[in-house]
Structure formats: structure tokens, C-alpha cells
Amino acid sequence: MKKSKxxxxxxxxxxxxxxxxxxxxxEKEETQIDLNERVEELEKKNEELNDRLIRRLAEFxxxxxxxxxxKEELFKYAAQPFIIKTLTVQEDLQRSLSHVDDENIxxxxxxxxxxxxxxxxxLEEQGVTKIDAMGKEFDHEYHEALLQQPSKDFPANTVxxxxxxxxxFKDKVLKHAKVVVSQKVEEVSxxxxxxEK
Length: 197
What we know:
Strand order of the largest sheet: 1-4-5
Strand content: 15-25%
CATH superfamily of the domain at 128-197: Head domain of nucleotide exchange factor GrpE
Number of helices: 4
Structural class: alpha+beta
CATH architecture of the domain at 128-197: Roll
Number of strands: 6
């Protein structure tokens, strides 16, 4: 009786072990299937992300090309509004010149003054202004001295004559005013005395 019980127990143990082995094999197979599905899912996501990345890169390259073209066009035609405004001045000058004769010199002068005023207004609208130099102290930032001239009427280092007008564009000097600067009369006589010795 004891032997048969032992056999029964052995058989039960063997059956339990077989069941466990079968369950383990089934679990491994299910895990392998789950892993395969997961790998496929991740590969799909990876492909989608790569596709999106490639599209974004292409969109960015197109955007870059488009902005470069727009920038190039902007620089190429930046002066267009100013040129359009100045063409009216040129047309006015042409009209004035077409009516020139000896009888209407005063009318021509008045017409030219109007055209010059119109042109000055266009320049001022663009931020271009004349440098007011006459009677001011010489400043190398705004003036270019062509020569010094002795003067009793002005203090030394003062602009006494503007040879060419200077211009500013907003806060930048476009063209320095070419000027004659005063010099004390005493300095001139001292220089002459030293040259005579």
C-alpha cells in the first residue's frame, strides 16, 4: 500500500511538472509573440517618425530657399519707392526745360525753385537732411575742412563758408559738408613772422 501511494504521488508530481513545463513553454511563446508585436509596432513608429522628420527637413529647406529669394528681391528693389518718387521730380525738370526760352526766364526760375522744393521734401520724407554748417564750430564728425582762412568776424575754428552741402541719413552722415574754417588773424601774422625769420 505504501508503494502504490508513492507511485501515485510520483505520477502526480510528474504530471504537475509536465503541466508547469507546458505552461512555461506557452508563456514563452506568448511572450515571444508579444515581443514580436512590440518590435513591429516600434518599427512602424520609427518609420513614421523618420517620414515626418524627412518632410520637416524638406519643408525647412523650401522655407529657407523662399526667404533667401525674398531677401534677395528686397535688397535688389529696396530703392524702388524712392526712385518712383524722384521720377516725378525728373519729369518736372524735363517739362521745365522743354519750355525754356529768353522770354520766360523768371517763370523758369520759379519752376526750378518749385522742383527743388519738391525734391527736398522727398529727401526729407526718406530721412535725408542737410547738415547745417554755416556759422557752427568745426566738427570733424560732420565737416571736412578744405582750408583755413583768417577772419576778424568769426571766432577761430568756425565754419565761415560752405563749399559743398553735407547730408545726413537719419542719424548717419551720408556726405560730410566741405567747408572753409576761420582762423584768428593773430595766428596768421605770427605764422608769417616765424616764416620770415
